[in-house]
């Protein structure tokens, strides 16, 4: 994106200043650190998913597998909220540069939809992991006496 020259691209535009501001804001987005951080989080999640999948598939060490799976979900949630927050910071500045009064509603809706989407995704993954944790728990030997049956003792 460094090769984009706003003055050259907007030379023929009747609203040159607005065009240049738009090109500069798009260039700012491409220079944001969220791309590098996102790639780092993705690499970490990929590397963590290999042992997690193998241990979960074998089913021999339930506690370690669940700890790895919960760690994966926590790292994924952290990365997604960071990325959405970084993107929303940029998009708010971008919407502020647009000279339309109704952009505040668009910005609010975008923020609610973005954060809400990440929250729903993470809660769905956590719910699946809770179900797996519950269904794979070892049986207990604790027997509760029934108050409805008479015992022979």
Walk me through the structure:
The mean pLDDT is 83. The chain is elongated. It has 153 residues and is mainly alpha-helical. It has helices at 6-9, 16-30, 34-58, 62-97, 103-135. The longest helix is centred in the middle third of the chain and has 36 residues, at 62-97. The chain has one domain (14-135).
Tell me the number of strands.
0
Radius of gyration: 26 Å
Helicity, in percent? over 70%
**Element string (H = helix, E = strand):** HHHHH
- Based on secondary structure, the structural category is mainly alpha
> β content, as a range?
under 5%
Distance between the termini: 83 Å
Approximate shape: elongated
Helix tally equals: 5
Q: Structurally, how many domains make up the residues? A: 1
Uncertain residue segments: none
Give the biggest sheet.
none
Mean pLDDT: 83
